[in-house]
């Protein structure tokens, strides 16, 4: 069985400071991992994904994440936050070998202050 | 190009009524998914179509929920005898259809359902 845990329900940062959103996963086989972002009243948008290639994945808008199998983690980072980064972020796992559905975490709300 | 569209954007109904929610996927995407997102939670999988057939309906909560995709494009999620607990945002997504575990799913803006 798969599951994903987002360790922080809310993260607050100042504009220009680094962002770290933490995610741990559980998967029986070979996981695919995703980060999606949801801005208010807008659809979910893919930031980046890991599907068994390079463990350091670069996404849109300066975000990146590193797949660490030994720690079962897939934390999302960005060197410098922008006001427009304020949104809800979801860490997502699937098992591509078993062809399973996406399992979403509960989300982390990112607030960015000026 | 056009993304995934969903109608209506908002739906208010009374307990016990029947509702239909519509999803128009991206043209050419053979895979289509329905999710439900309750307040403060991440989306939860409901059903997955590959073409016209439901390849996985394991997420449907009970037999009041049903979905169709008769021509392999537009899909309709149908909820009978609605209950207050059905209130949520219903999200639709589509993907190219080669590998649902790896490929990017493109989400619509959702239908916000409120059952009074």
Protein architecture, described:
With 114 residues, chain A is mainly beta. Chain A contains no helices and twelve strands. Chain A has strands at 3-6, 10-14, 19-21, 23-26, 31-38, 45-50, 56-58, 64-68, 73-78, 87-95, 103-104, 108-113. Chain A starts with a strand and ends with a strand. Chain B is globular. Chain A binds chain B through residues 32, 36, 41-46, 49, 51, 90, 92, 94-107, and chain B through 3-4, 33, 40-45, 48, 56, 58-59, 91, 93, 99-102, 104-110.
According to DSSP, the number of beta strands of chain A is 12
The portion of residues forming beta strands of chain B comes to: over 45%
| Overall outline of chain B | globular
Secondary-structure element pattern of chain B, one letter each: EEEEEEEEEEE
Number of H- or I-type helical stretches of chain A: 0
Core attributes:
heterodimer; A: 114 residues; mainly beta; 6-stranded mixed sheet; 4-stranded antiparallel sheet; 54% strand; B: 116 residues; 7-stranded mixed sheet
Give the SSE layout:
The complex is a heterodimer of chains A (114) and B (116).
Chain A (H helix, E strand, L loop, with lengths): L2 E4 L3 E5 L4 E3 L1 E4 L4 E8 L6 E6 L5 E3 L5 E5 L4 E6 L8 E9 L7 E2 L3 E6 L1
Parallel strand pairs in A: 2-12
Antiparallel strand pairs in A: 1-4, 3-9, 5-6, 5-10, 7-8, 8-9, 10-11, 10-12
Chain B lengths: L4 E3 L2 E4 L5 E6 L6 E7 L6 E7 L2 E4 L8 E4 L6 E5 L8 E8 L10 E2 L3 E5 L1
Parallel strand pairs in B: 2-11
Antiparallel strand pairs in B: 1-3, 3-8, 4-5, 4-9, 5-6, 7-8, 9-10, 9-11
